[in-house]
């Protein structure tokens, strides 16, 4: 497996000549063409552009949810294109924290168990899962909402639970796809302030 040396001065992720094509009927749609991107550790990056410009496609490739049609992607020195599906799932679970516009919380699980969920797939013991999830919820200001279901929380609180879930495993990078899209303007400002604070605390943040 080819790799780049993962040193403190090397990029956290690097994309070289990334292309993504979709087949729609008789036409090829080029969602991404020859994208080169390098993101350092503890960098705060935003993908900005109109609908249909390829932002989410690029985010999905960075998050190892999709593969490019051509090009090379290194994450923490590893060539992602050489990883099989099991290895990619492990990368997503351990290296990447996801925050989605629609929160993607489990409706029948309380805040604590929603945040614990990624740790289940790691095989983390129950007591340690609880400790880590408690700490993550404290970090986003919801330490007093552990037993609340998603429908008992405001939109901003649900997004904070989603952020805690993304952070609980101490990922290398935090990816947020339009995380304020379903929030009112005041709550959106609070969530963006939280991302700024997470960046100041040393997290690498990439958002659409």
Describe the fold and architecture.
By secondary structure, this protein is an alpha/beta fold. It has two domains: 13-94, Rossmann fold (3-Layer(aba) Sandwich); 95-207, Rossmann fold. It has six helices and eight strands; from the N terminus they run βββαββαβαααβαβ. It has a four-stranded antiparallel β-sheet with strand order 2-1-4-5, covered by helices on one side. A four-stranded parallel β-sheet has the order 3-8-7-6. Helix 4 (126-139) packs across helix 5. The radius of gyration is 18 Å and the shape is globular. The two termini are 31 Å apart. 31% of the residues are buried.
Key phrases:
8 strands; alpha/beta; 208 residues; 4-stranded parallel β-sheet; single chain; 2 domains; Rossmann fold; 6 helices; globular
Give the percentage of residues in beta strands: 15-25%
CATH architecture of the largest domain: 3-Layer(aba) Sandwich
Shape assignment: globular
CATH C-level of the largest domain: Alpha Beta
Query: How far is it from the N-terminal to the C-terminal residue, by CA?
Result: 31 Å
| Share of residues in helices | 25-40%
Count of distinct structural domains: 2
How would a textbook summarize the main sheet? Answer: 4 strands, antiparallel
* Global mean pLDDT: 91
Count of DSSP helices? 6
Low-confidence stretches: none
Here the CATH topology of the largest domain equals Rossmann fold
SSE string: EEEHEEHEHHHEHE
Q: Which strand order do you get reading across the main beta sheet?
A: 2-1-4-5
Count the beta strands.
8
Provide the CATH superfamily of the largest domain.
P-loop containing nucleotide triphosphate hydrolases
Radius of gyration: 18 Å
Secondary-structure content class? alpha/beta
């Amino acid at each position: 497996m080819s790799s780049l040396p993962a040193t403190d001065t090397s990029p956290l992720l690097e994309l070289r000549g990334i292309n993504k094509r979709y087949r729609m009927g008789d036409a090829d749609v080029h969602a991404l063409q020859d994208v080169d991107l390098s993101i350092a550790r503890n960098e705060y990056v935003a993908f900005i552009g109109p609908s249909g410009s390829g932002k989410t496609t690029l985010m999905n490739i960075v998050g190892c949810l999709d593969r490019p049609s051509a090009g090379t992607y290194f994450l923490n020195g590893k060539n992602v294109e050489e990883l099989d599906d099991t290895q990619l799932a492990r990368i997503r679970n351990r290296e990447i924290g996801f925050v989605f516009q629609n929160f993607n919380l489990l409706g029948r699980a309380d805040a604590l168990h929603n945040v614990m969920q990624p740790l289940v797939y790691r095989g983390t013991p129950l007591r340690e899962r609880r400790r880590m999830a408690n700490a993550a919820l404290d970090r986003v200001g919801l330490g007093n909402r552990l037993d609340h279901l998603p429908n008992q929380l405001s939109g901003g609180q649900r997004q904070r639970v989603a952020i805690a879930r993304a952070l609980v495993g101490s990922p290398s990078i935090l990816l947020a796809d339009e995380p304020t899209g379903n929030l009112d303007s005041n709550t959106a400002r609070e969530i963006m302030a939280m991302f700024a604070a997470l960046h100041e605390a040393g997290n690498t943040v990439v958002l659409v």
